[in-house]
Design goal:
- With 440 residues, the protein is an alpha+beta fold.
- 51% of the residues lie in helices and 10% in strands.
- The protein has helices at 11-26, 35-43, 56-69, 72-84, 90-105, 114-121, 129-139, 144-150, 156-159, 162-176, 184-194, 207-215, 225-239, 251-256, 258-283, 288-306, 323-336, 414-423; strands spanning 314-321, 345-347, 355-361, 364-369, 375-379, 392-393, 403-405, 427-431, 434-437.
- The longest helix is centred in the middle third of the chain and has 26 residues, at 258-283.
């Protein structure tokens, strides 16, 4: 793209031309414009610094000259201005109406396909065109680029212009309203549309809308695992990485589409918890006693992960592995082709085979360990509580809580009861590593 928004003129030249056109309209001398000036006037109709669209007399004079002279290049320039500079306001609606009138009365050399597209799709009606383009892409059997090309958006610039962006946002709203499995084929269309050949986001401002389309259909029920893995991978590639470790890149989604962001974080939280379980299972493969003990811990934390029986849910989770666990985790991420499994921290508190599950549950930060290590508890606001989503945890970070509790007890279920009463505030700590029941 050259100059300002595709015009061959730079902003200074654009301003000079616009001032000359406004003056010509005011003095009724527009008919003296050269063909090149008339074409360039149509190109910069919407451009700063002095848009022609903002002056009704100038707008009338330019459109009249285009029609009187039958200048095809000027018509094509007006079309490009409409497609590239599309917006939704009264001023632009009046501009679009003038284009429709011009196409309907045109008697010069053919200006196909624009009159035909206006009749068949309402392309130059701002109230209709985004919806018709969105429906065509979602319903079509060809690629979005091919469909848009057949509807007049036949260049890369036009397929990334404001009309295409508005149509894309309209499509995301349609898909975001769906629920369950019916959304999957439509989400595939959104993915094809939103990514360029290098996998980058085509419409940079539309990340919140894209996230809503790919996540909100699963607000109440999870998609099949392979589809969920694909959605996570696509979203991370579009959003600039994992939202847990790259929160800044995800701020627009977090602020503008909080419900969609919550779905993604729910998936990533569950992925971290189950990743912890699975890697510990692998590391305990040759330890039958350890595997038996670990099965109870897995059931216990799964209940909190899913919020069973009204228990507080694990709101956020992150895993820190030793070197051996990290190796197994990277291997699992490759085997499952799931991007969420490739993100974790490194712990230096325990051995290379130990793993720590760092969770936020209710008012607690909880760190439970694999193998024989104790579970650690930090109440909300406690100084020194570990932060989630760190890449490295130095020695002492995850194993120096004011309160800790063992998984070993005379009865198989005593430790589960103790942990639950701590987390659910049925017990409270009165000093380091001791607790008593609350008084009635």
């Amino acid at each position: 793209m050259q100059g300002d928004g595709g015009s061959p003129l730079d902003p200074e030249q654009t301003g000079a031309l616009q001032r000359r056109l406004h003056e010509a309209a005011a003095t009724k001398s527009v008919d003296g414009l050269k063909s090149r000036d008339l074409r360039d006037a149509c190109k910069v109709f919407l451009h700063a610094p002095e848009p022609l669209i903002e002056n009704a007399d100038t707008t009338d004079a330019i459109f009249q000259q285009v029609e009187v002279k039958g200048q095809r290049s000027a018509v094509f320039a007006l079309v490009a201005a409409y497609i590239d500079g599309f917006r939704e306001d009264e001023q632009f609606a009046a501009f679009a109406k003038r284009i429709r009138q011009l196409l309907g009365r045109w008697e010069g050399r053919p200006i196909s396909p624009w009159p035909e597209l206006e009749k068949s799709t309402g392309l130059f009606d701002p109230a209709k065109s985004p919806k018709s383009l969105a429906a065509a892409v979602l319903d079509g059997g060809r690629t979005p680029a091919e469909i848009l090309g057949g509807l007049g958006l036949d260049t890369v610039i036009r397929q990334r212009g404001r009309l295409a962006e508005t149509a894309f946002i309209e499509a995301t709203r349609i898909v975001a309203s769906k629920r369950g499995l019916s959304a999957i084929p439509l989400q595939a269309r959104i993915i094809d549309w939103v990514k360029d050949a290098d996998g980058r986001l085509v419409f940079a401002r539309a990340l919140p809308e894209a996230a809503s389309a790919l996540l909100l259909p699963w607000a109440d029920a999870d998609p099949p695992p392979d589809h969920r893995a694909r959605l996570i991978e696509v979203l991370q590639s579009l959003g600039g990485g994992d939202p847990r470790t790259k929160p800044g890149a995800w701020r627009p989604v977090r602020e503008q589409a909080p419900q969609a962001y919550a779905v993604l974080m729910r998936w990533l939280t569950r992925a971290s918890v189950f990743q912890f379980f699975d890697i510990v299972d692998r590391s305990l493969a040759r330890d039958p006693a350890g595997r038996t003990m670990w099965a109870y811990r897995r059931r216990f934390w799964t209940a909190y992960l899913l919020g069973e029986e009204g228990a507080p849910m694990i709101e956020e989770a992150w895993v820190a592995f030793g070197n051996e666990g990290a190796r197994l985790a990277r291997q699992a991420a490759r085997e499952n082709a799931e991007a969420g499994l490739a993100a974790f921290g490194n712990q230096q508190d325990k051995s290379e085979t130990h793993a720590a599950l760092i969770m936020r549950v209710g008012d607690w930060t909880v760190v439970d360990w694999s193998h024989s290590a104790k579970c650690n508890f930090w109440r909300k606001g406690t100084k020194g509580a570990p932060q989630l989503y760190q890449t490295r945890y130095p020695a002492g970070t995850l194993y120096s809580a004011p309160h800790s509790a063992s998984h070993y007890s005379p009865s198989t279920f005593t430790w589960q009861k103790n942990f639950a009463e701590i987390i659910e505030e049925k017990r409270f700590f009165v000093e380091r590593r001791s607790w008593r029941p609350k008084r009635a």
